[in-house]
Structures are given as structure tokens and as C-alpha cells.
Amino acid sequence: MPNGAAGRGVSLGRSGLQTRRLFRSWPISAYLALLAIATSVPVVACAAFLAYHFVAESSQLKKAEYEDRLRLMRNATELRVANIIEDLQILALSPLLSEGKFAQFREHAIQAVRLIGGVAIVLYEPDGQQIVNTRLELEGPLPKRREFDVERRAIETGLPQVSGLQTAVVDGQPIVTIAVPVRIAGQNRYALNIGLSTKYLSGLMDEYISAGLVGSIVDSKGFLLARRPLLDGDDLVGKTTIPEVMAQIGKTSALWVKAVSRTGIPTYTSLLRSNQSGWSVNLAVPREVIDGPLHRTVEWIIALTLLTFLLGLTLAHALAKRFLAEFADFERYVFTLRTGADEPRAGRIAEVNSMKQVLHEVGCELETAIEQQKGLLDEINHRVKNTLGTVQSIARLSRANSRDLEQYAIAFEGRLMALSHAYDLLTENNWVGANLDEVVRRTLAPYAGAERLDIRGPHVLLVPKVALAITAAIQELCTNAAKYGAFSVISGKLTVSWIVAEAGCVCLRWIETDGPPVQEPSRQGFGTKMIAGTFAAEEGWSVDLAFEPRGFRCTMHFWPRGHDEAGSRPP
């Protein structure tokens, strides 16, 4: 390869290495900035979520409040109409009508219209001719009504009827009428109606329309029957409602429709239709009341987020200077270690001081570490020898109690797994010991579920040797139960309990129930020999095996700390 090409290759290689280092290594200031952002984001996000959630929930509560207010308005209107219908129906039952005593009936009607608060009560013939009008005397002829659809429907259907916006016959004022049929001799002979002023309807809303809200009652054609508040002193009765409400006329309900009021204020308008009268009751709420808190919350969240990030980056920059100074001093100290430095000078960062001290002491600790390593190797060697001796004993006894090679392999493998589980428990506890409850539960786990087991007893810590012995014994009891005892049938159950005497000796009871009938074996198997041999070899230990017909029982007495505890127990 030519020298120029080689030089370019080396140059490119170094450039690539520098590029990789640039992307892999960042200054501590960058990491601190990322840390500031990473710690700020969850806090700000959580605060933003909670704030938005609370404000949104408050907005929903406000919506529910205004919806309830709208329903109350609709219900109050329907209740007032129902009461008026009931009063008219009672008045229509007057015997004066069937007797033709209209002058006397007129006096009763005048009293009724005063009590109700209406404009007038009028009695009509089926052709629209007035018979009685509480606003006109009976001496002269009474006028004939032109807008007679409501009264005609009342006579034809026999049901009460409620009108939309109409004009009074006498003075032309805007009214609504409620008509009921008058039955005489089984026929709908007349129509009795009452005219209600639109101001009467407006009074129904005064209790529910607070400052800033707009309420109205609209008939089925979209004409305003009542409105609160007044617009420049005008109640706008007889005018058509705004287009957004007009588009919803005839619907049973329409909630939170975006609209613009007559004064140009953006609102949410909602309406409910009355099936009784055909009117629609409307309530408009300024959008600012509902959306304003949400918008302001979002603005505050954005401002808080930016302020938090700015503050975090500022603090990160200030801390980065301090860190860089300390790390520069640490780097200088590391270089001086080659020639043997004195005690390191303490800085302002505890972790850097700690690393300096560690590096200063590492030489002195190397020898101690080597000695500890040698001790650990000796301990491992000792434990391996003990384990191999235990495996050799298991193999010898398993062979003596097996009829063929397959039975020997199964028995040997099961006992090795029990030994492995015991070693797992000891390893998890750094060979300090194992909890008796864990030993029992782990050994029983492969044989039965929790519904078939009753395990109870106080906390007892077993030293490693005792834990291995008890694990092996329980493993053999499980094998026996799976072959001949409680675990050999679905209904079988097992209770394992233990107590600790005052002297510290543990009494463990193994009780099988609901299994097959038990018979005492004619010869001792491996499990029986192993358990008996283990407990006989330890001072102060004992075991009692009871082959009762109702279930096998085993009672063990042992010292959780082995020979040391047994030798120190009181006589």
C-alpha cells in the first residue's frame, strides 16, 4: 500500500475513534442538565395532571350543577302548567255549565283567574264563538276567536292542550293558552281555556337565573315566550330564538351546544323539551365560566414548566463547576499515587473524598483480601467434601432399598433435588441458616397445593446442618405420603405444626388425614432408616413414627442449633 494511502487510513481511523468517543462520553455538566430535566419532568407532569384533573372535575361539577338547574326550571314550568290544568278541569265540572247559567259561572271564573294569576278565562263553542269571557261583560255580543286550534284539539281529543305564542282577542297582548274540554251529557260540549301573560312565565325563571346566565322558554315554532334577563329593557317576547337554539327545537334534549348570545358573548346553551306543553326550556352559560379555569390552568402549567426547567438548568450549571473542580483534584491525586502519596486532602464532595481514601488504603488491604480468599477457598473445599459425603451416603442407601435401576434413579434424583432445595435456602440466607417455615413449605410445594396443607408454627431459624437434616427427613415423609399416604389420593390432607419449648427444643408434628387406610410396613425402607438414623445420631433428638389406620403421624424433637444448643441445655 502506498505511504499516502496508509497515512489517510490511519487518519480516518483516528477520526472515527474520536467521533465514537465524542458520542459515547459527555461532560458532567450535560449529565447534570439531563438529571435536572429528568427529575423536573415527572414532578411537573404529576403536578400538571393533578391540577388539570382537579380543575376538569370542578368543571364537570359546574356542568352538573347547571344541568340540575335546567331540569328544575323545566320541572317547575311543567308543575305550574299541571296545576293550572287541574284547576281548569275542576272548574269545567261546574254544574252551572250544564244548566246554562253562564253569568253565575262567570263570577266563579273571575275568582279562579285571580287565584291562578292569569289574564282571562274564556268558554268557547266548538266553532270558536266565545260564551263567557272574564274580561268582557255578557250584555253585548262576545267576539269569535280566530286562532282556535288549541281549543278545537281539546274538544276533539278530550285532552288538555297547551298553545304556543298567541295574541289576546281583547287587547292583542302576547299570551299562551291552556285549554280543557267541558263534558256535558257524555260529550265534549265546550272548551274552557285560560290565557297566561308571558310575564307570568318569566316569573317562573327568576328563581333559577342568576347573574351572567340567560334563561328562556321557547314554543315549538321557536318564538320566545319568556326570557331572563331583559335585553335593554326588552323581554324579546314574540321574537325568534337564536339560530343555535332554533336548530335544536323539537329535540327531547340538547346539552352544552356552543352558541353566541344576542349580546355577542360565547356561551354553552342547553335545552330540555317539555312533553306536556311542547315548550323548550333553555339555559345559557358563558363559556368562560366552564372553560376559563381549564385554559388558565394550562397557561400556568406551561409557565411553571418553563420556569422549572430554567431553574433546573441554572442549578445544574452551578453544580457542574463544583464537580469539575473536585474531579480535577481527584485526577491529580490519582497520578501522585504512583510515587506513594500522603493522606489525601479532603474536598467538598464526600464521594470523591471516599474514593481518595479507598485508593489510599487499597494497597494495605490487598494482603488482607488474599488471606480472606484463601480462607474462602478452604471453606468451599470443606463444604464440597461434606456434600460429596452426603451424596455418597444417599447413593449407598438408595441402592440398598431399590429393586431395579429405574427405581434407584428416581429415588436418587428426588433426594438430590431435596438436598439442592436445602442448599438454595441456605445460599439465599448467606449460609447463616434457614427458616423452618420456608423449609417445610418449599419441600411440600411439589406435592400438594395450599388447599390441602395446614402449616403453622412460630419463626425458627435452623443452622445449616439442621436445615439439611430436616429437609431430608421431610422429603422422605413427602415421598412416603405420595406413594402410600395422604398425597396418593385427591382427598388427602396434611397438617404440619411445630412449637418451641422453653429450653429451645422444637417439637414438629406431621399428621396425615383423609388418606387411604394405613398399615404398618413389614420392613423398613430407606426413608424410615434415614430419618431414624439421622435423629439417633444427634444428641437430644428423637423421632416417633406412628402408622395409625386413620393416617400416618410423625413427631420430631430436635434442637435448631444442633450440638451446641443441645450441649448447653439445662439438665
Task: Characterise the protein shown here.
The protein is α+β, with helices and mostly antiparallel strands and 571 residues long. The strands form 4 sheets. Strands 1, 2, 3, 4, 5 and 6 form a 6-stranded antiparallel sheet that branches. Strands 8-7-11-10-9 form a 5-stranded antiparallel sheet. Among the domains are: 79-196, Beta-Lactamase (2-Layer Sandwich); 354-400; 406-568, Heat Shock Protein 90 (2-Layer Sandwich). It has helices spanning 3-24, 28-92, 95-98, 102-116, 149-157, 198-205, 243-246, 287-336, 350-400, 405-428, 436-444, 464-483, 526-537, 563-568; strands spanning 120-124, 130-133, 161-162, 166-167, 174-184, 187-197, 214-218, 224-228, 253-260, 266-273, 280-286, 434-435, 453-456, 461-462, 493-500, 506-513, 542-548, 551-558. Helix 9 runs antiparallel to helix 10 and helix 10 (405-428) runs antiparallel to helix 11. Residues 366-370 and 567-571 have low confidence and may be disordered. A hairpin with a 5-residue loop joins strand 15 (493-500) and strand 16. It starts with a helix and ends with a helix. The protein has 14 helices and 18 strands.
Number of helices: 14
What is the H level of CATH, i.e. the homologous superfamily of the domain at 406-568? Histidine kinase-like ATPase, C-terminal domain
Q: What about the largest sheet?
A: 6 strands, antiparallel
Shape: elongated
> Would you identify the regions where 5 or more consecutive residues have pLDDT less than 50?
366-370, 567-571
Question: What is the CATH level 1 assignment of the domain at 406-568?
Answer: Alpha Beta
